[in-house]
Amino acid sequence: MLYGQTILVTGATGAIGRAICLALAQDGAKVLIHYSRNRAAAEGLLADINGQGAILCADLSDPAAPEQLWAEATALGPVTGLVNNAGIRSEVSIDAPMQDWQSVWAREFRVNFLAAADLTKCAIQSFRAQGGGRIVNMASRAGQRGYTSSSMAYGASKAALINLTKSVAQSHGAEGITAIAIAPGWVRTEMAESYIAQYGEAAALAGIPIGRMASPQEIGELTAFLFRPTQMSMNGAVLDVNGGSYLR
Questions:
Q1: What are 22-41's pLDDT values in tens digits?
Q2: Which H/E stretch holds residue 152?
Q3: Which of 3, 35, 147, 154 is an active site residue?
Q4: Residue 196's pLDDT is what?
Q5: Residue 137, SS3?
């Protein structure tokens, strides 16, 4: 279904990124696996997809990194898709010193949004020359309904990513360049397990009607589906994957 496609996945060594890469490769895509620190995990993932791609290293907190990453990706051949999945979630108290507050907000936006925006710019320019391409942005329920006081930067960065998705969809859809956002609620990842360890599973599942978190595999399967050539009309969609915990 995705044969002939080459898709760059950022933040590929985390639970969600890994599941996305596995699903894309299973459907026939060549996967470019981005990592920032864990080379061993990236190499292991490449082995798990039978070498059906390549690994690329970049620190997306560096403003110069996204453009360099895209250049390295396209040096391997035409890239037809981009998954902006890399992200961080930091906490800072509203009562923290202003310098600490600003530092968290700056880093959160740099990694979660500005790196994605820079990669999107590069992708659009490449996709134009190729006659089209697709971008899938990993947003969050937090970007739609707001978030906790200590993690407002995370929610705001994900809201910006949703707006970027809609802007690309409206502005470049006529060029065959489509963009879609996925907005998960809780997904069973290390971040979720850390929260559960601190507050308990009941707190994490409160407000989720189906009584469980999404699995990374669910996100991976959905992402692969969105790259099917038949799914052009998904352009501009924001897909909720939250078990009914946020309805709009």
A1: 999 999 999 999 999 999 99
A2: helix 152-172
A3: 154
A4: 86
A5: strand
